[in-house]
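Long-time lurker. I teach an intro course on protein structure, and each term I like to show students one example going from raw sequence to a predicted 3D structure in token notation. This year I'd like something fresh instead of my usual example. Would anyone be willing to generate the tokens for the chain below so I can use it in lecture? Attribution to the forum is fine with me.
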Amino acid sequence: MQTQTERQEAMSAAATAPLTLGGRPFCAGESRVAVLGAGVMGPGIAQVFAEHGFDVDLCDPSPQALERACATLGESLDLKVQLGLADRTAADQALSRVRTQTDSQEALVRADLVVEAVFENADVKRAVYETVAARSAPHAVVWSNTSTMNVFELAPPALRPRLVVAHWFAPAHILPLVEVVGDEHTAPALLAETDALLRALGKAPVRLEKFVPGFIINRLLRALGREAFHLLESGVISVENLDAAVRTSLAPRMQVLGLMQRYDYTGLGLSLRNLADPRFEDAPVNLRPDALQQRVDKGELGVATGKGFYDYAGRGALELQHARDVRLWQVVRALGELVTDPRPI
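-- Reply from a regular --
Happy to contribute to a lecture. Here you go:
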């Protein structure tokens, strides 16, 4: 097993090695990135590329979405300066590298990498892929940030060999994980190039061997959410205490052991007995739990509306994002390589 010094040297060598994408050189200052969609994920993805020296076109047909994205980008970079994670000059330079556009045509023509981060709707994505196939350069690689969908079925045949799912996690400018998967038309070399580029951007790519709806983390969250809603609606625990229980047990332990290595430490025999224990009643499959449906029906959608499972007392989305990001940066900085380069014990 590599020592910490050997791992750091390997990572440093990887970071300085020439990058390619689609078999062509891909480097800051020369290669351009087009991010399609300025909603939840697009601004954070654009920020990561811009901070690493790439010129980025952030495209969205909505001027209002682009205005919010600019405010988000500015706030995010200001916070890094406040926390000592970036200096003012570097933050200003990163912001200057992001150009917003309501029409993606010019951005697509000159892009070497297109990142699709539009709404999770099959018709919307299908239309975007048709536009990308028609307007982008033949060498341009396309990353989809879809969180659940089989985008390979939506893309025109000509686009599929250069299409890769690269699913980032919110907030994209802080969390390291990116789930990566291709299909039978994806060249293995393109997947390897995608991994290398993500690592150079400071991300931790995890490769899936094949496509499955929802990929890995969203499938795990779906199962966890089903049990959580069952506990809430059965009167077992309050929202606040459920969150406290997770923060003080599952969260720190999973950061060290992940999911599967935890079984090794528990003991596989005991783990098997626990899974087979008839006294446990699994949560019923309920895809519209009352605790969720009732809030949606009342328009209580979470941070965006100021109230969800918690009442945010009139604080705006940008203020709440700031509070979240301060804590996340504290966690990520404290964990160091446990989160940036996670490895089994």
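Some talking points for your students: The two ends are 10 Å apart (CA to CA). The chain has three domains: 10-207, 216-285, 298-345.
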